[in-house]
Amino acid sequence: MPAHIRKAMGVNTKGDKLIYEYDETKKRITIEKPSVDLNALQKKMARFIKPNTPPLRNVDEFYQKNRKIT
Fold first, then answer.
1. Where are the alpha helices (DSSP H) in the chain?
2. What's the angle, vertex CA 36, arms to CA 34 and CA 58, rounded to 5?
3. For residue range 13-66, what is the model confidence (pLDDT) as tens digits?
4. Which of 6, 47, 59, 67 could form a disulfide with 11, with the two C-beta atoms 3.0–4.6 Å apart?
5. Which of 27, 8, 28, 30 is nearest to 18 (CA)?
6. Range of the domain at 11
7. Which residues contact 11 (CB under 8 A, 6 or more apart)?
8. pTM beyond 0.85
9. Domains in the chain: how many in total?
């Protein structure tokens, strides 16, 4: 697999796992990286959340408060 594709998929180390699926009728191969575990996802997303930000518990209420009425 070309380096730029490996980099885009986040497959940088030797031995990283990939899932592939071959659709014979469409002659298509789908390659994807398995989903990350919850701890890895939490570490990755933590850099986007400002400290002391309360968790979003009610999405509908947040949307209603913050939507722009046109």
1. 3-9, 38-46, 59-66
2. 125
3. 777 788 889 999 999 999 888 877 788 888 888 888 888 988 899 999 999 998
4. 6
5. 30
6. 3-66
7. 1, 18, 33
8. no
9. 1
